[in-house]
């Protein structure tokens, strides 16, 4: 946070917020009061600023929080900037400060905080050409260009393996740690240098004494909180681990805070912060690009994701900003919009489909081959007729059916078409429409109404949206700068089917970006979750292919653990033991989640866990996860999309459940689609975990676990 007061800027580091959360309970509340008082009058007598002469950085100071606790600050030489860096008990705060250095990097212009230990100072390393180790092939001038402080060069060259870099994470500035991680993962130096240069943008000459200017640097804003409201400050202290609320990576900030000359597509693997970018994009548009009567639509596929987004957006937006924003899943918006406009149909989400298809199938020609069973018609409708918007037999003759299991010429198409016509007739008689039909009808209404309902549209989890949905979204907003912003990852497609945005009137060429740093899961979990998708070709939402390139996690931990048991009772006992061990390791039961493939299986595991003394809390389809309610979380694998936990226990990972044996088909195209979605579902469940993944089951193991 940066606050102007008496010509002094006060900025709060992420370290400070996190360290405040570890103070004793009484001191935490006093730390909040200290912050409010300090930001109003940083040079007041109550601050009791004391210069720390024993520190390596000669411009570090301490300030009194209460009798037992101290804050550590950096004061610029001009005295115009104060940076709050750390909070701790008296002696520990001074010990933390002793070898810390806070300065402006002469290459990047970013404010960096790092540790210089005695070994680094004492070490006089050999010339570069004699060096061995993790970064032996990287010259000093390149390390400096990546943002490595000159004082840390000996430390970097001592690193022999990636584990040495991982263990030094808290001692190395965040920006150069990321660059070094890319190098350690095998990325070419030239590519990493290009990436860093792209994020920095045009650089003026760096003045290493100008902290006011340095606070504007995107790498500085990744670490220092810039935002004057007390609401934001209180929210940050109440949820210190939810750094996304206030700290954006430069790659994210560059996407959020700019004008785009048309639709934007943002890709990125699980945990890269796509939803965070969407939230901050909505906030930025509301604050900077909306006049009094202009509206922003933030939409997604499911109700529960829309609920989660609305709650998270309210946490970072002021009331005046939220007044510009409508957060709703698209199906609900369509339903409400059509009802307001006297729509004469009811939208059916599948409840009546079985009966209507049975009746339509009964009307088939007696000369129709037996291979054209009811399942064929339903799959043909879902995969060809609806997505390709086939309304007449003439259109059906022309449409491509590439990949479908049964080859059909004009004769066969003419024979089967009456069944589809009868299905339409039955829908009309019942007065119902499917969601895709309702979206087409909504498009027609909007085109005749003239004025569009929104000035900006933001779509999250776009991989699950249909082509009809994107055509509707294009109709909901006029074509102009900043009109449509789309985030998605087809590796996580668990509902929809591939679409091509360009065919839906949404042109994203030249405005496509990709996030590459995973902030949620450990590298070990990320690697395992990617292996689940081995052999699956994934689209980029616009007709191309999306690959896991430069997808890096900065966190490390234990490998996911697969455990097999004799029967379900033994499995549940094993899950109880896992929960006990995780709690003994310091994890709160609210941060543990047990998931299974279906609602009935989840309920079954919940009952057995309760019988064994484990309190549980069920996250239902449309309800939010109320973290204040006690109990190990229980949910379906679908429901946890968009959530995160310290540990995920994926239970019932048996051959007949993952993939779900109930989803059977003889059509090769549909079969591939089903299996890909089932793999994506396991990938999604695993990537909800921040620290641990356990996969349990009994009997025959899921084939997806055979890697």
UniProtKB/TrEMBL annotation:
Gene3D superfamilies: P-loop containing nucleotide triphosphate hydrolases. Its EC number is 5.6.2.4. GO terms for molecular function: 3'-5' DNA helicase activity; ATP binding; ATP hydrolysis activity; DNA binding. It comes from the Bacteria. It catalyses: ATP + H2O = ADP + phosphate + H(+); Couples ATP hydrolysis with the unwinding of duplex DNA by translocating in the 3'-5' direction. Pfam families: UvrD-helicase (PF00580), UvrD_C (PF13361). Keywords: ATP-binding, Helicase, Hydrolase, Isomerase, Nucleotide-binding. The keyword Isomerase applies. ATP binds at residues 268-275. Residues 247-522 form the UvrD-like helicase ATP-binding domain. This is DNA 3'-5' helicase. It comes from Desulfobaculum bizertense DSM 18034.
């Amino acid at each position: 946070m940066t606050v102007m007061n008496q010509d002094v800027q006060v900025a709060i580091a992420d370290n400070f917020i996190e360290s405040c959360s570890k103070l004793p309970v009484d001191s935490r509340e006093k730390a909040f009061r200290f912050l409010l008082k300090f930001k109003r009058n940083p040079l007041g007598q109550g601050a009791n600023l004391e210069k720390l002469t024993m520190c390596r950085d000669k411009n570090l100071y301490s300030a009194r929080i209460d009798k037992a606790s101290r804050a550590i600050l950096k004061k610029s030489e001009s005295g115009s900037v104060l940076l709050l860096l750390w909070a701790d008990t008296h002696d520990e705060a001074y010990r933390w400060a002793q070898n810390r250095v806070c300065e402006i990097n002469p290459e990047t212009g970013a404010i960096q905080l790092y540790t210089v230990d005695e070994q680094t100072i004492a070490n006089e390393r050999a010339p570069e050409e004699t060096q061995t180790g993790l970064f032996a092939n990287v010259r000093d001038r390149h390390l400096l260009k990546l943002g490595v402080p000159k004082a840390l060069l000996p430390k970097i060259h001592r690193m022999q393996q990636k584990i040495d870099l991982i263990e030094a994470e808290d001692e190395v500035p965040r920006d150069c740690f990321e660059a070094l991680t890319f190098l350690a993962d095998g990325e070419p130096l030239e590519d990493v240098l290009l990436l860093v240069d792209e994020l920095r943008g045009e650089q003026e000459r760096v003045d290493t004494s100008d902290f006011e200017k340095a606070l504007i640097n995107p790498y500085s804003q990744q670490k220092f909180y810039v935002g004057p409201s007390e609401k934001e400050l209180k929210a940050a202290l109440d949820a210190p681990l939810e750094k996304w609320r206030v700290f954006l990576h430069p790659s994210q900030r560059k996407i959020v805070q700019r004008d785009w000359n048309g639709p934007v597509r943002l890709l990125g693997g699980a945990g890269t912060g796509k939803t965070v970018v969407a939230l901050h994009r909505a906030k930025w548009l509301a604050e900077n690009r909306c006049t009094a009567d202009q509206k922003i639509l933030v939409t997604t596929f499911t109700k529960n994701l829309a609920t989660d987004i609305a709650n998270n957006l309210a946490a970072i937006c002021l009331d005046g900003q939220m007044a510009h924003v409508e957060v709703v899943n698209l199906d609900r918006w369509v339903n409400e919009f059509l009802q307001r406009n006297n729509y004469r149909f009811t939208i059916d989400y599948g409840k009546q489909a079985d009966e209507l298809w049975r009746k339509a199938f009964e009307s088939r020609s007696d000369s129709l081959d037996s291979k054209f069973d009811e399942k064929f018609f339903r799959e043909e409708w879902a995969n060809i007729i609806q997505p390709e918007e086939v309304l007449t037999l003439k259109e059906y003759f022309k449409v491509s059916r590439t990949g479908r299991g049964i080859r059909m010429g004009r004769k066969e198409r003419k024979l089967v078409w009456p069944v589809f016509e009868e299905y339409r007739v039955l829908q009309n008689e019942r007065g119902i429409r499917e969601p895709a039909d309702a979206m087409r009808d909504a498009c027609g209404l909007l085109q005749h109404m003239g004025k569009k309902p929104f000035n900006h549209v933001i779509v999250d989890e776009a991989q699950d949206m249909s082509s009809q949905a994107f055509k509707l979204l294009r109709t909901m907003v006029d074509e102009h700068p900043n009109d449509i912003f789309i985030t998605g990852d087809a590796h996580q497609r668990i509902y929809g089917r591939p679409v091509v945005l360009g065919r839906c009137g949404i042109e994203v060429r030249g405005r496509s970006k990709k996030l590459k740093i995973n902030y949620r899961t450990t590298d070990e979990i990320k690697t395992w979750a990617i292996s689940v998708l081995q052999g699956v070709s994934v689209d980029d939402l616009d007709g191309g292919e999306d690959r896991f390139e430069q997808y890096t996690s900065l966190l490390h931990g234990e490998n996911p653990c697969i455990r097999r048991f004799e029967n379900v009772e033994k499995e549940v006992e094993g899950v109880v033991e896992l929960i006990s061990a995780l709690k003994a390791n310091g994890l709160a039961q609210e941060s543990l989640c047990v998931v299974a493939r279906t609602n009935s299986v989840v309920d079954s595991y919940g009952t057995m866990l309760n019988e064994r003394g484990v309190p549980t809390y069920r996250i239902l389809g449309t309800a939010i996860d109320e973290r204040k309610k006690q109990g190990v979380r229980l949910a379906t694998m679908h429901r946890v999309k968009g959530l995160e936990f310290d540990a995920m226990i994926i239970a019932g990972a048996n051959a007949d459940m993952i993939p779900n044996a109930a989803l059977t088909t003889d059509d090769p195209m549909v079969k591939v689609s089903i299996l890909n979605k089932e793999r994506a579902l396991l990938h999604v469940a695993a990537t909800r975990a921040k620290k641990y993944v356990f996969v349990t089951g009994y009997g025959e193991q899921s084939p997806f676990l055979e890697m």
